[in-house]
């Protein structure tokens, strides 16, 4: 019996050394591909939804969840603009419905490196990232798909409410846009997200122009989001929030007075009032 036990132990040790992907063992190697609100989870739609849907403002950057190499980068009828990454830890991830792809097949990427811009391409009903993790290679029937929330917590995707700009004792309150600047470049340089910049400045989209003044903090004003309720009018909301209807139109890029239930509206509130 002793030789048998010895052989069994050798086989057990050998099996345990085989590189099998393990979500719990590799949590530290992952980062969130984007910060935003989870709008749909793994396993919904009768079990057919094999990933997470994460909504975020238009123009936000999507980053690689871990080190690896781009295995696919193309336009799909269903995924839209999509990137696949095979990771050094044995997994493969999918980033779908992008507005723009910044990496091509074969590119090496580092964890947290920008690979695309969030979008609404393919079979999609709003700006969001569809994110999948596969324990092994992606297959057409998605047999290796796993719930990303076994690697991440839901809280991990939530944007930070406070952003601190490292590198200077005092952060500038405003900046003048220069020729060639983009909102993504200014956001990165000042330790802010694109979504935060859009919110603070009441922008309708990420497009900016030379000479434009942009706020970099909320020292004078704070932002509130009002969700339009059934029966609301622009003037009723303005009266309720203590602002003018024209101001709400300007902050939200509205061209008329038409609003709809569940529409989010940015409201600027003077801290001194």
Fraction of residues in β-strands: 25-35%
Distance between the termini: 85 Å
How big is the Rg?
23 Å
Which structural class do you get from the secondary structure elements? alpha+beta
Low-confidence stretches: 13-20, 160-172
The CATH architecture term of the largest domain is: Distorted Sandwich
Number of helices: 5
Question: What does it look like?
Answer:
One of its GO terms (molecular function) is metalloendopeptidase activity. Keywords: Signal. It comes from Bacillus glycinifermentans. The protein is of the alpha+beta class and 273 residues long. The chain folds into 3 domains: 131 residues, Distorted Sandwich (Glucose Permease (Domain IIA)), CATH 2.70.70.10; 60 residues, LysM domain (Membrane-bound Lytic Murein Transglycosylase D, Chain A, Roll), CATH 3.10.350.10; 54 residues, LysM domain (Membrane-bound Lytic Murein Transglycosylase D, Chain A). The protein is 17% helix and 26% strand. It is built from 5 helices and 15 strands. The strands form 4 sheets. Strands 1, 2, 4, 5, 6, 8, 10 and 11 form an 8-stranded antiparallel sheet that branches. Strand 4 and strand 5 form a beta hairpin. The longest helix has 16 residues. The protein starts with a helix and ends with a strand. About 8% of the residues have low confidence.
């Amino acid at each position: 019996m002793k030789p048998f036990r010895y052989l069994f132990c050798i086989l057990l040790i050998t099996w345990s050394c085989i590189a099998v992907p393990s979500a719990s063992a590799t949590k530290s190697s992952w980062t969130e591909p984007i910060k935003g609100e989870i709008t749909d989870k793994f396993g919904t739609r009768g079990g057919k939804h094999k990933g997470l849907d994460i909504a975020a403002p238009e123009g936000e950057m999507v980053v690689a969840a871990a080190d690896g190499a781009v295995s696919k980068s193309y336009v799909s009828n269903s995924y839209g603009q999509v990137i696949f990454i095979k990771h050094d830890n044995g997994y493969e991830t999918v980033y779908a419905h992008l507005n723009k792809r910044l990496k091509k097949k074969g590119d090496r990427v580092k964890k947290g490196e920008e690979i695309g811009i969030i979008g609404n391409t393919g079979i999609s009903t709003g700006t969001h990232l569809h994110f999948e993790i596969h324990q092994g290679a992606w297959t057409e029937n998605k047999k290796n798909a796993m719930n990303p929330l076994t690697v991440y917590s839901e809280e991990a995707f939530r944007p930070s409410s406070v952003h601190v700009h490292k590198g200077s004792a005092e952060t500038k309150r405003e900046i003048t846009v220069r020729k060639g600047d983009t909102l993504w470049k200014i956001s990165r340089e000042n330790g802010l997200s694109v979504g935060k910049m859009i919110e603070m400045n009441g922008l309708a989209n990420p497009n900016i122009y030379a000479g434009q003044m942009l706020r970099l903090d909320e020292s004078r004003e704070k932002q509130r989001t009002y969700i339009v309720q059934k029966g609301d009018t622009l003037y009723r909301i303005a009266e309720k929030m203590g602002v003018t209807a024209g101001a709400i139109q300007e902050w939200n890029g509205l061209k008329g007075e038409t609003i709809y239930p569940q529409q989010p509206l940015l409201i600027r509130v003077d801290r001194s009032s």
